[in-house]
């Protein structure tokens, strides 16, 4: 999640270069995104947008998709709070809210030993420590009651266990560090950890039992883990559909779209002739065939800010060398690729995508937050292609929850 | 009884037997792999490759941590994959703080992180329930070893 400029702009050098560029224009005429694909409004539709994020001046984000969520104290219709700039993330599971944003006092969930249940959530760039709390969640008109969510950085549990802080380098416990007021994980799984954290697996590294004195590892039964709220909705609970308009390169200042709840449950969420790619039940992955490689741990992820893949030849010729753009691609000219996405059900669909120079994109377009041709290296896995938010531009992408049926299949699957 | 008689094997044995701070493996003698296994409560199996040894530690979280030791006994790389990121302070040892400082400067969002310095490269990727990464000492790679093997 969170983006090229979110992070890149944090480097003083880039901020300087961006501000120097801002009076010179260079945004290529300010391309306007195509009109959004039509989505019939309904009680199951919420607006989503890509913009510079909640800390837009000092920590602008890029290719980061947000929506607005209302949370309430369980059972209350008055003790509620509506929070904007909640990141929409198909690559994680469950709702997490940054404590400084939250004005409600939500009840903390209890671990199986009677102490407070606190979680260490791992992100590649840092860890988020905070209690599991219970809340009623409303998005559009969909409501899930008494859902375990995480309150990141809550002052009630200030001491982060060493085992937690040792998994990452940075505490992702402020809005600026996180790049959002919270994150709404709506991927294919129901729990954020699953059986790996359920009894008897107490040494899971995610869940802790915290007394006033100390925290210790503990197993968390499935229903007490932080939960994807979608399958808990009373209706429209078998998945989601993200609809974003296409955006021409180099990008746009902002883009708006829709998040639809349910698949084949209303007239506005029919599958039609979408290609269904079933994903595996461990990682939620499918296979991408690309550049003579068969990448069996590939995934669609609205929470990734670019397309990330290995291509040895392309990397040696086109990896960015500027320290501010390390890990991104900086080809001399636009490079177009073909790939085929194949589900574990052997259903397949081919796609074409283009990659532009990340440094040029950011430098020439200082007001943009939407970059459809942003891509980087996925050097750590020989088996992965991370289809981030650029994949979603111009598509209608369905995410079906594990074990939930739609008119065209049973989750976990993705379809587009 | 001079130092010249001190073989690698006995040095490793001494390192295992002597009380010491359980520092981690990257850049340390191969014997510290044992510390990692102990500290991380994992189980280990070791494999010989042509120009290095791989110690594969199965962690309770389900993640596999691999530590790569050159034939001179220095751990020059660690790599991991699985549902959780391992304890990197343990696995990166004295390089963790270097990594932490560098990673704070800038990176590419929550899903991909890359730190490249002359003496240390760390690459980490993944999404919830599926992570992978590696850290290596580029100046200590045994001859004939490619970065792509470090997985």
Structure description:
The complex is a heterodimer of chains A (416) and B (151). Chain A folds into two domains: 206 residues, Cathepsin D, subunit A, domain 1 (Beta Barrel), CATH 2.40.70; 146 residues, Cathepsin D, subunit A, domain 1 (Beta Barrel). Chain A contains seven helices and 24 strands. In chain A, a hairpin with a 7-residue loop joins strand 2 and strand 3. Chain A starts with a helix and ends with a strand. Chain B has one domain. In chain B, 22% of the residues lie in helices and 31% in strands. Chain B has a seven-stranded antiparallel β-sheet, with helices on one face. Chain B is globular and about 35 Å long. The N terminus of chain B is likely disordered. At the A-B interface, helix 1, strand 5 and helix 3 of A face helix 3, helix 4, strand 5, strand 6 and strand 7 of B.
Short structural summary:
By secondary structure, chain A is mostly beta strands. Chain A has helices at 4-8, 12-22, 162-165, 175-178, 312-318, 358-364, 389-392, and strands at residues 45-50, 65-72, 80-89, 93-98, 116-123, 126-139, 142-152, 182-186, 207-210, 215-217, 239-243, 255-261, 276-278, 286-290, 293-300, 307-308, 335-342, 348-355, 375-376, 386-387, 396-400, 405-406, 409-410, 413-415. In chain A, the strands form 3 sheets. In chain A, strands 18-17-14-15-20-16-19 form a 7-stranded mixed beta sheet. A 6-stranded mixed beta barrel of chain A has the order 2-3-8-4-7-6.
Name a few traits of the molecule:
heterodimer; A: 416 residues; mainly beta; Cathepsin D, subunit A, domain 1; 6-stranded mixed β-barrel; B: 151 residues; alpha+beta; 7-stranded antiparallel beta sheet; 4 helices; 22% helix; 31% strand
Question: How are the SSEs placed, and which strands pair?
Answer:
The complex is a heterodimer of chains A (416) and B (151).
Chain A: H1 4-8, H2 12-22, E1 45-50, E2 65-72, E3 80-89, E4 93-98, E5 116-123, E6 126-139, E7 142-152, H3 162-165, H4 175-178, E8 182-186, E9 207-210, E10 215-217, E11 239-243, E12 255-261, E13 276-278, E14 286-290, E15 293-300, E16 307-308, H5 312-318, E17 335-342, E18 348-355, H6 358-364, E19 375-376, E20 386-387, H7 389-392, E21 396-400, E22 405-406, E23 409-410, E24 413-415
Parallel strand pairs in A: 3-8, 4-7, 15-20, 16-19
Antiparallel strand pairs in A: 1-2, 1-12, 2-3, 2-6, 4-8, 5-6, 5-9, 6-7, 9-10, 11-12, 11-21, 13-24, 14-15, 14-17, 16-20, 17-18, 21-24, 22-23
Chain B: H1 8-17, H2 32-39, E1 43-48, E2 52-58, E3 64-70, E4 75-82, H3 88-92, H4 96-105, E5 112-116, E6 121-127, E7 130-136
Antiparallel strand pairs in B: 1-2, 2-3, 3-4, 4-7, 5-6, 6-7
